[in-house]
Automatic annotation (TrEMBL):
Pfam families: Glyco_hydro_43
InterPro entries for the chain: Alpha-L-arabinofuranosidase, Glyco_hydro_43, Glyco_hydro_beta-prop_sf
Signal peptide, first to last residue: 1-17
PANTHER family assigned to the protein according to its UniProt record, in alphabetical order: GLYCOSYL HYDROLASE, HYDROLASE, FAMILY 43, PUTATIVE (AFU_ORTHOLOGUE AFUA_3G01660)-RELATED
Site residues by UniProt (Important for catalytic activity, responsible for pKa modulation of the active site Glu and correct orientation of both the proton donor and substrate): D147
Record lineage: Bacteria, Pseudomonadati, Pseudomonadota, Gammaproteobacteria, Enterobacterales
Family to which this protein belongs: Belongs to the glycosyl hydrolase 43 family.
Gene Ontology terms for molecular function: hydrolase activity, hydrolyzing O-glycosyl compounds
Keywords attached to this entry: Glycosidase, Hydrolase, Signal
GO biological process: one example: carbohydrate metabolic process
Protein name (Swiss-Prot/TrEMBL): Alpha-N-arabinofuranosidase
Amino acid sequence: MGIFILLMMGNIMSLQANTTFTNPVLSDGADPWVVHHSDGYYYYTQTTASNITLWRTTDLSDLENAEQKVVWMPKPNSVNSEHVWAPELHYLDGRWYIYFAASAGDMTRQRMYVLQSENSDPFSHYDYPTATQSGKIADTSDKWAIDGTIFEFEGKRYFIWSGWEGDTNEQQRLYIARMATPWQLTGERVEISRPEFAWEQIGTPQVNEAPQVLFNPKGQAFIVYSASGSWTDDYCLGLLLFNGGDPMVAANWRKHPTPVFSKNEAADVYGPGHNGFFTDNHGQAWLIYHTAKFKGAGWAREIHMQPFGWQVNGLPAFGRAIGSQVQQARPN
């Protein structure tokens, strides 16, 4: 009888291990981005600083063992050969595009760049679109820029990123510009957010960065962004609500007065930020983000994820950051 009970307990524990996971899903990483493709795979990328790497898996909770492929390597001493940050993968007009920030050694010269896939396979080779100079994508001001992402609204496409107002690192703000093509912006940029609340102003310089577009089930658009210094324990997520109208009108974006996701000291989670979103096969929405590995860890970071829902007023309900002690059901 004792042996039978032990066998049953072992089976239950094995079943739980196959259906649940715990954070972190990657023990080392920052700036996660996920696409759930129609081929059944999740495609994941993050900052490597030296190249663009994609992970491919059917189980995001097992990223440590996912297939990896370097899809682009910069040429030595090129304008974007170093500090390759925060790549994002987007499917636009029948091709895959990867947007990333980089420079040639001097981080004060970070700019946004774009790569184009050779075909419709996200795991194919990538290179600069032929109409660009080394893949550079910039508005008319051509100022310091990182963390570019895509916003599509009423058949038009916009680029949103974090940048400097001038040529010195005083404050990172969020900007938007119209897109003429996946590799070309048109017209001037418009500022839609700057650090203004105390929770956005921790650390010097003050930071708004990593904008991510999110739509609720009713179609209302939001930008979830990261606020305060990414090297601090107080890095967190803020929210801009789009009120409709022209996205290029700053007044049409309204800032939520409090952070929507922040550190959870009880769970030993500090500095959660620079997130992405994905939806699993059951339609469950997920938040993936990086956190400090421990209190005071600075830029030593790991990757966490957790499901989220919606409040009755339409705002996202991310809940508290989930630490390493909680068993969660795997994404379907």
